[in-house]
Amino acid sequence: MDKLAPLIEHMKILCFGVAREIAGGPSLQLQDVAGKSVSELRTALLRQYPAFAELTGFAVARNEAYATDDEVIGQDDEVVIIPPVSGG
Amino acid sequence: MADPTTTIDVALRDQPLDLDACYRFVQHSSCGGLCFFVGTIRDLNLGYPVTHLEFDAYDGMAVREMEKLAVAARDRFGLHAVALHHRKGDLAIGDVAVIVAVSSVHRAPAFEGCEWIIDELKKSVPIWKKEFRGDGSHWLNARP
């Protein structure tokens, strides 16, 4: 790879339930979210996939636990969109 | 498989759930009260006939969240044991979607703990139901 090329890192975000239908598959890619906060990820997600704004809401999970908006996302984190749950 | 050294048994599986196994796990000679909640698939929702349901789950986190709830309920209500089993995949009318089984010395904590677990599970555990009706399908709770 050309060392001078701008490095755009894509992160795979996993999707379940209605999020899978909005993403068109079991995951979606967001650019340059590593090092950013969960809140910034939400903004990026809504910009790229405006249909998420039509949901009742959604949470973000980081490494199998609910993440707060100020948590910072690491490159190796498993990040998941959690639409409103309906188990039971 | 339930671990006999612990008093918490959590499972998420795509096979039929086993109420007898939950009973055997929570029953104990010190306990005078066992309480069970069994959630099943009904044929009508909000007036519309339902044909079947599909359950999607974020497996690893769902199990972790169920374990957190089971431990929290055991400690909060002083339960002896908690079994919490949830189904995933395609379910037909009448199928069992979830079993909450708890035991305690007396009945009051068993009733309260059992109800608390199913209420909290519906709020926090990452499992999703897709409802299929004659006129289409949709993910429950997803949209206003």
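Chain B has three helices and nine strands.
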